[in-house]
Amino acid sequence: MNDAHSRPVTGHVPVLRLGDVLLVTLQGDLHDSTAQQLQQDLSETISRTGVRGVLIDISGVEIVDSFLGRVLAEIAAQSKLLAARTVVAGMRPAVAITLVELGLTLPGLSTALSTEAGMELLAQQAPLARPGSPRQESP
């Protein structure tokens, strides 16, 4: 039985660059292949552009299951290895409750109530040190 109608996100998830941040907006559920492609796209784009943040807007996601929770945690871990921070924005209360009930802690992720708040959070955070680059000292 094909469940394509209940899982509308297939193929490619657009990744937009807004200054030093990559913005990903998820709508609906992710298929395995789409999630894998998103992880690869984000890693390649972070490496190529040197952005310092990834903002994932999940306000269009009705349900976060253990699969999507794992994908978000993996994106955060990969981003951190590439010296970028990850913020998830727009989490619905029901989604937060489900994550707690599933025991998913989403390590490495910060959260924000809205995309705007997520952008502010990323702007406030000091960038992670990039391999091979000198550390900047604050006065």
From TrEMBL:
Pfam families: STAS (PF01740). It comes from the Bacteria. Residues 11-122 form the STAS domain. CDD domains: STAS_RsbR_RsbS_like. PANTHER family: RSBT ANTAGONIST PROTEIN RSBS, RSBT ANTAGONIST PROTEIN RSBS-RELATED. This is STAS domain-containing protein. The lineage of its organism: Bacteria, Bacillati, Actinomycetota, Actinomycetes, Kitasatosporales.
